[in-house]
User: Fold these one by one.
Assistant:
Number 1:
Amino acid sequence: MDMSIAAMSVGMHDMQAQQELGVSVLKMAMQDGTQGAEQLLEEMAPAVDPNLGQNIDIMA
């Protein structure tokens, strides 16, 4: 299995390109997830009762 320097260079370049593509896709997925979470929190904010959980009734 004798590989020339040129073939190794091409192979390494291809691997680097694949890795960069994977990182780009992951960044897009993370950004979409973050935007989705922010949107969900914005939609839920008016529905949250600020007095809920302020008092605890304890009976023994």
Note: The mean pLDDT is 88.
Number 2:
Amino acid sequence: MVDYNDLFNRLLILRTPKIGTVKYNALVQQFGSVAAAAGAVVSADVRDSVLREMDTAQKLGIHYICDDMPAYPSNLRAVKNHPPVITARGNLDTLLRPIVGIVGTRHATAAGMRLVADIADVFASRGYAVASGMAIGTDTAAHRGALRADGDAQTIAVLAGGVDYIWPIENEALYWDIVARGVVISEMPIGAVPLANHFVVRNRWIAGVSSKLILGEADLKSGSMTTAQFAIESGCEIWAIPSHPSDSRAAGPNSLIKSGMAKLCSGASDFFDTKKNDSEKIKNEKNSDSENPILDAIGIIPVSESVLSEIVKKTISEIKAELVTLELQGLVRKVDGGYVRV
């Protein structure tokens, strides 16, 4: 149960310009309590803004979770200078599950996204919540893979903007699927538009909520590698999926494996006994073998024409022509971000 006055005072401090978590903690320590610190820094404009935000939260069904509440992720609470308050939209029970973070590049290969989705599916089926950042590519594959599992509370989207601000817009359908069957969280004010530096903080909290972090394809200098660095600093267990060294997207995970910072991840079998599931999967794959390389490269994760061109070694014009045929046959469907198999 939220203590309204305590929440209001926390937000008064946090929504005051130029006050982040570090200064928030310093002010509370200086004045001896949240209420005293709020009284020292608050302005009429901030007070009105916080009242409007809290009213909007109530109308949109958005919850505030303070760091002394049971629903606050326990791993995140252990991180130094964690957010004193986060907002959440969806099923709060998701935050009580053990959490595995899965991150990687927006420009993931179809094969990379399939593997990530399969790993997320298995984790979600075994009682974990899969946390990621709702970006296109690897993040989308992680969320969608987790949502393949039966039941609810499978996945957590950590956003860089307000918990109600859908970004990227291509993932609007995914956002609502997560709200319905998982949870979306953020430390930003409701309605806040994400800025470049917010994504770095978002990456820290993905690592912060997770007991394990799995890194998919990622360039050496990328947000995903920043997330991995945060995970290393917090003592989080890190796994990385290797890839061919000639691909720049392999540089991140391969470097962590080579340095000993991450364990090599080859699939869900590294974490669970999946022999039964694997044999069933092989059987299903044999039964659904189409002998069409384009169709075989398309799954439940949207794949773009350019990625398909790389996989099957055909020109974009050839890919487009065959996709039209497959669409007319009812075998594939065009969605935001590419094509999915029907």
Note: The chain has 15 helices and eleven strands.
